[in-house]
Amino acid sequence: MQANQVARTSSAQSAQHPTPHLLADIGGTYARFTLEMGKGDFQYTHSLLCADYADFYSAVKAYLQSLPDLHIEHAAVAIANPVDGDQVSMTNYHWQFSIEEMRQKLGFDTLLIVNDFTALAMALPRLGANDVQQIGGGEARKQSVIGLLGPGSGLGTSGLIPAGDGWISLGSEGGHTSFAPRDEREIVILRYVWKHFAHVSFERLVSGPGLELIYQALSEHAQVKPKELTAPEITQHALDQHDAQCIEALDVFCALLGTAAANLAVTLGAMGGIYIGGGIVPRLGEYFAASSFRPRFEEKGRFSRYVAAIPTFVITAEHATFMGAAAILDAQLRTLKTEPGSAILGQIRRIRADLSPAELRVADHVLAHARAVVNDPIAEIARAADVSQPTVIRFCRSLGCEGLSDFKLRLASGLTGTVPVTHIQVTDDDSALELGAKVLGNTASSILQVRSQLNRDMIERAIQLISRANKLEFYAIGHYGVVAQDAQFKFLRLGIPSIAHTDSRLQLLSASVLSDKDVVVISSSSGRLPELLEVAEKVRERGAKIIAIAASHSPLIRKADVALIVDHVEDVTTHLPMVSRILHLLVIDMLAVGVAMGRNPGTAGLMSGEADERLDEATPVSKKPAARNQAPGVSLASPLAKLTSHSR
């Protein structure tokens, strides 16, 4: 085990964490670990050789056993691999594992796994002038896109997009873009590598193993027998001017990195600069500053002036990846502190006052033991909450889940998930542009949150009810009246007899003549308006079906045959239901598209506003009623799968 303890940062400059945060940077060769005692205070930093450990768990345990007796609850791991879901399989090494299984085995409350270059990207806004070395000219534009790449065991790429007061990092695998030679020497290298690999990416050459390939190719071309040299040895021979092929190989390597960096710059429009990290370039020092990198970076034909204005920097900060991983973990923990676990736990907190005594016991048990609930069987959950098993199922379904399994999946994804979407408060000091950006940003965030709560079974049942209805009525009051009116228009265009009522007296009168073959869609943000609850009772008396678009566990949801959950807390600084009204309109759109796809998959794309005329031509209204009622043998599963896949 290699070990080097890092000196403590002044504790006066950073508040200490209640327990140390474990941070790791896992590459194809080394696994680096540290403990963050407080913000920027890294201690007990060790580097382990991956080849010495059979798997990820063994390496982490070896590091933990080297520490004094410290209690660790939260950890963040930056790994040289795409991270998508619970299973991680490293691209450049054989380690693979389940994130949740590792969290349990290691006994952590939080285990956050992120791509290593995503973590490094998140460190960039926190780097100071002493943490980077500028190579060449150019000047960074403030609040502009930033690009990041760096060779190591592979070629990592990422980027940062400014978003309000923060940044959005890009999960990218741009290192696997196809390599393109720029001169005869690079064509020679490409031909050599083609003998071994069908596809040659930039990562194949601009990396540690790539430097070895370049050296071998140049040696063969010079008719010199190559020595058995590793990438570090080739680099050292080149820096010491001891071997002609090594010198040439390192020169080519730097030039190819310049091409890759320029490609990234024009792809992202990275006027905020291009940063270079990884395990190779920062060790080259002044050699890299004088190398072919910057001249090649600026060789972009008609776009040479464009890239010449973009600055390039080498990251020299020793703990940059740790800094980024720590920032992501801090963001996650701040969210878990205000809304621990997931959006579902946030839903439970909002509706606790409306729960029955039995359901309240289930809710309190979930809030207190969220991680245990993910793994416990229903019998154990019911026993711990002192309720029946059917009560547990009813509780889950009242939150918009299909059942306990669906509830657990959503809960688990929140407990081990990624950096959450946030709501940005609109203030009196905002300019017109800032107001617009915040309103659009908040709307987009809310749409993503509703998307995570979609219940496939409920959407499918709603589409089936509407498709088979003799008559379809839409009820809403006040600002939500436009939702009912919009729905009436859409379903009339589909040939379904529809009417919208936004007056409570007309709603009661209309409900009193419904039949058991009719369907009523009621839209209400709170789901608690007495007028709508009264009309819902009248609809139930007549035997008609109710589809409710409302907040989870509201009185209206309890009266509905199909519950479409839209949980959104409006900005208290405004009197208008801006975002939630848009969310209700989107739910109507989903139902309309689903009905259209169920009857004729080819018409789904015609539901957008610009295609109304084509919808008329393709399906005349006079012919629609005959096709309205769906045949019993026709399944909506296929079109619904397409609909919900778009929503995900």
Automatic annotation (TrEMBL):
It catalyses: D-glucose + ATP = D-glucose 6-phosphate + ADP + H(+). Its EC number is 2.7.1.2. Residues 462-601 form the SIS domain. Residues 342-418 form the HTH rpiR-type domain. Keywords: ATP-binding, Cytoplasm, DNA-binding, Glycolysis, Kinase, Multifunctional enzyme, Nucleotide-binding, Transcription, Transcription regulation, Transferase. The keyword Hydrolase does not apply. ATP binds at A24, D25, I26, G27, G28, T29. Pfam families: Glucokinase, HTH_6, SIS. Residues 1-20, 605-648 are annotated as: Disordered. It is found in: Cytoplasm. Residues 1-17 have a biased composition (Polar residues). This is Glucokinase. It comes from Undibacterium amnicola. The gene is glk.
